[in-house]
Each structure stands twice: as structure tokens, then as C-alpha cells.
């Protein structure tokens, strides 16, 4: 205990002492924490217990200070070998943690993806993930002994490799109570592909509660300095993986990006791969570039009133298409051109997907018109193929106050949501050439059905169907549908979750704000 200058019997840091006294437990996490801070415990340390955490490289927790303390008390030869290796590599000034390569590389990949610039570094990212996968199969300690590193590796590799979820409870590092590590574990636990992943479900429950509790109690995070950690936690909890939409999420990540990040371990630590300011600059330029490709202004003068809209060139072409076809003259139809284009732009934002965006937006607008037409002034003779028949059936149930069976409702519901005319034509514009075998395959129909069911039953059974949809999207074995096409179904599923999260899809000031940010507002 560091004594107070006013009294040798009183602690100089009473808050720290109270935390230590109030958080002592008999579980694995507390024993690991005591071992991790061995150099501060001196003769009171149980060195026999601490040495259980010695790694293959001779260190304790890859910490030079902890390893040096252990060697001082035990003269362990493996500890000495590790320390000599450090001195040979770094001289007299060694890092606070070594090695930390896997964590730094995975953080870099995660940053590139969350900032929306990963498409520019495909080869580099593939190299990092291939190396990480080899380390994973080898049971590398640098991955499995640190909760944050293990969680990132699992999150980035799980959709590609389908490996075991049990790793999260096999590491002492997983028990250290840290908001940053818990947030990584939460993100990893969201990617469940199979119905029997109970470990991930339990982990998701704990990590969903823990960060909120820590932040609400205003506890200082000891693992790293991150002034935006509160916003990161809030965004992760409010916007789950299946509703995490490209442009909206990227904008928030850019806003809250912790450039020049410093981690606080036993002393400060920084790396060019963690919180790199160049990544942030590139992300801002890329975000603005995707908008500036088609950025313009359009002036409309109806009824002698000037309406100035800052729109994309493609959105302008889309609106011109609406005007040329006199769809804007339909009094019964909601004029939701920006919303329809927004639903395409948030996920199909790369410049090369321009045609796919337009196809998506036009189909979406036509379906909005058709829905409004039927709701207000439609007739049986003018219904549109299967989509309109299913809408008519639902309207008949409603008018006649009939309650269909679950089987009847489900057989009709996934068609009546009318996502087919939006998504299916757009498949032709995302890159791969589609053969008759692909178009007629049951896999494509199953993807469509699951996507539509998720939308129709969003507030009921969406979690189960979303998990199944994600599994079909990420699994390549036995699949003939190209990944770019399967991603379209997953993107639409995320759009549905965004549009129907709180409202009926087209109302609310918050949604209008999102539309303006994606289509109009540059990042400065």
C-alpha cells in the first residue's frame, strides 16, 4: 500500500484499494489477474500459481515485467531465455508487451473493414487472415491467451472457416474484466451460424450486459485510452450484426475513430496498426469520393416555389425516370424516391455497383406505388402478378377480419412483402454472369424465401431465420450461387431491419437524417 502523505496508516489511493478489496474472487479470472500483476505483489505472490500461466516462449502473459519478477524469485531458465531474447531484439528499452503481432494485425484488418476501405486491401487482408488461420489451427498462445485477440480472430474467420466456439472459455485472458475486450467478445458472439452454438449465445448475453454496466458506473477502463469507447459500445448494442448497414455504420465509425490510439497495459503502448491516422484520412476521402462521383444540385420550380435538392447524379437520373414516366403524378402514391435510392446506397455503395443501385431503387419505387395503389385505389384486374395476388389475399383477410392459419399466412407472407422485384433483377448487375442453372436452382429460391421471411416476421422469429440466412450466405461448400449475389439477399435483410426497426419503414425524422447523411452530406 502506498501511504498517504498525511497519515502512514491511510492509503494514498483509497479508490484503488477499495476496488481491490471489493473485487477479489476465487475464480480463474482473479487468479489470472493476480498472476498478471505479480511484479507488484512481491513476496506476497503465490509464485507456484503464477507459473501456471507461463507460455511456451518462457514469458508470463508476454509481459517482460511480470516475467522478470518471476525470474527474480524463482530463477526459472525459460524466463531468462525470454528476457535475453527481448534484450537482443530491443536493447535496453523493451516494450510493455511482446509479442503483440497478432493483435495488431487483426486490429488493422478490423479497422479497414469497419472504415469501409477493405476493398482496396484485399490481398493484404487475405494474407493476414491466412496466417491467423494457420496460427489458430496450431493453437497459438498469442491468440488463445488473450480475449480480445481470440474474439477478433473468431469474428473475422468464423464466416470463412466454421471452427469451434469453445475457445472463448479456454483462456484466462477471457476472464479479465475489460470493456474493450468485452466489446470484441460481443461482436464475435453475434455471428452465430448454427442453432446449437450455445457457447456463443451465453457469451452474447454476458457481453451484452457487462459493457453497459461498466460504463453506467463510470469506471475507468484500464486496458486502453479510448475517448469514444462509450459511443462504440452504444452503437454495437443498438445496431446488431444483422442490421449493421454499410454507409451508416461507416460514417459512425469514422466519426468515433480513435486515431493515434494508446493502449494502457502496464505502461502506455501504441502501434501504427492500431488507430492509424492514415487509415482515417483514406476512409474520409473514400467516403466522400463515393458521393462526389455523382454529386450535383437539382432545382425544381413547381408552383413558382424553388426547391433545391442536393442529389447524386444517379439519384437525379432516377427521379427523372420517375418524372418521364409520370409516376410523380399519381396522387395516391407516396413520393419516396430518396428513400428507395437510400436503401440501395447504404449497402451497394462501391462506384462499380451503380447499375445495381438503380435497378434496386426503381424496383423499390414501383413496389411502393403498387402498394399504395392497391391500398387506396386498386382493383383485382390491375394487380401485378404473384406479388399483387399475395397483397390482395392479405387485404382480403384484413377486410373480412379473417385469421389465417400460420401455414396459410407464411405461404403468402414472404411473397407479399414484395422484395423479389427489388432484389432479383439487381442480381444481374453485381458482377457474376448468372446461368440458367443458378437462376433455376432451389438455393436461390431458399435465399429469397428466408430474406423475405425475416422482413415479414421481423418482430417475431427473425433471429432464427436471420441465422439461417447468414449461414447460407457465408457457406461456399455445395453452393452454386456466387457470393456477390448471395450478399444481395443479406444486404436486403439488413435494410429491412433498419427500415422497420422502430417505424413502418418510411416515417420518422431519424430516418430522414440517415437519408441525408448517406446521399447528401460529405464528411469534412
Automatic annotation (TrEMBL):
Database matches in Pfam families: Terpene_syn_C_2, Terpene_synth
Cofactor: Mg(2+)
UniProt keywords, alphabetically: Lyase, Magnesium
UniProt xrefs under InterPro entries: Isoprenoid_synthase_dom_sf (IPR008949), Terpene_synth_N (IPR001906), Terpene_synth_N_sf (IPR036965), Terpene_synthase-like (IPR050148), Terpenoid_cyclase/PrenylTrfase (IPR008930)
Keyword Lyase: yes
GO cellular component terms, A-Z: chloroplast
GO MF, any single term: magnesium ion binding
Lyase keyword on record: yes
One annotated GO biological process: gibberellin biosynthetic process
Domain Terpene synthase N-terminal per the UniProt entry, residue ranges: 46-237
Protein name: Terpene synthase N-terminal domain-containing protein
